[in-house]
Amino acid sequence: MRFIVGLLFALALVPVGAYVYFTGGSAPVAASDGDMPFEKFLVRKALHVRIAKEMPKSVPIETSEANYLAGVQLYKEHCAVCHGVPLSPKTAIASGMYPQPPQLLVGKGVTDDEPGESYWKIANGIRLTGMPGFNRSLSETQMWQMAILLANADKLPASARTALVTPLANSAPPASSAPTTPGSATPASTEHH
Fold it and tell me: Which of 133, 136, 113 is nearest to 121 (CA)?
């Protein structure tokens, strides 16, 4: 009987200890902190099981040059700030994230993942990583274009490889780099309506 009482007491201490850990300010919540106990193991396991269960098994678009080029444009607009492009240094955003976002087009990237796995990640995002889900902002075709780009990044046509390292047309610096101070006139505030 004493054993059962002791076991129940020990089991009751687990949620109390977890509560104290999280509410006492001990949990690592800053991007610069390390992992929580068992965090990587539990999150990776849950993620892999969920993706394996839900990812599409077939690709509904062809792996054509046009789809690769569309995927490149979308990737540069939505993904490159975190996941990088070839021949460019890691951005300040990517350097400050936790966990560090993988550089998808450097080395093997995710070319060993099925396109359906990349599609699932693009569509749904990954909780607690900074990876957003794009299923509300991009079309299914657009998400597949990025997924096939990533799955085939090691065998892209020359046109797509060139497009990856070419700056976006709309990424030009602002017309005026002069700082403004409160109360100073800016072009928007001097227009007459």
Answer: 133
Nearest to 149 by CA among 43, 77, 51: 77
Higher pLDDT, 53 or 167: 53
* In the chain, where the domains are located: 61-165
Distance from the first to the final alpha carbon of the chain: 84
Bridge partner list, 131: 126
Contacts of 77 (CB under 8 A, 6+ apart): 168
Tokens 């444009």, located at residue:
73
Greatest extent of the chain over all pairs of C-alpha atoms, in Å: 86
Residues 6+ apart with CB under 8 A from 69: 159, 160, 163
CATH fold of 61-165, please? Answer: Cytochrome Bc1 Complex; Chain D, domain 2 (1.10.760)
Distance from C-alpha of 9 to C-alpha of 144, rounded to nearest angstrom: 52
Instruction: Specify the higher pLDDT residue, 184 or 162.
Output: 162
Asked if the peptide bond before residue 174 counts as cis, ω within 30 degrees of 0, the response is no
Question: Which residue type sits at 44?
Answer: R
Global pTM?
0.74
Residue with tokens 């059962």: 4
Q: What are phi and psi of 22, to 5 degrees?
A: -80, -40
The answer to whether residues 78 and 131 touch, using CB atoms and an 8 Å cutoff, is: no
